[in-house]
Amino acid sequence: MATTEPSECRMANDIALNLAHLPTAQAATELAGHIGRFWDPRMRTRLRALVDSDAAGVHPLVVEAVKLLR
Q: What is the pLDDT along the chain (70 residues), one digit of tens a residue?
């Protein structure tokens, strides 16, 4: 089955789901840290653009993490 979800969105959502057991603020900090350390700057730019465009399917925790990355 093909997906139309951008890979940055899919990967960030997967990480968010793995961190969802943590309190929201801690999970957002952990997610932002992971993205900041391990993602290529171009990937971070595309993720910010997805969040800014209110792309459907972006996990709320990803939105919070992107705010921390700014």
A: 556 889 999 999 999 999 999 999 999 999 999 999 999 999 999 999 999 998 789 999 999 999 999 8
- Predicted TM-score (pTM) of the model is 0.90
Q: How far apart are CA 68 and CA 50, in angstroms?
A: 15
Give the span between the Cα atoms of 45 and 69, in whole angstroms. 10
Q: Residue 49: count other Cβ atoms within 10 Å of its Cβ.
A: 13
Helices (H), 1-70: 7-19, 24-38, 41-52, 60-69
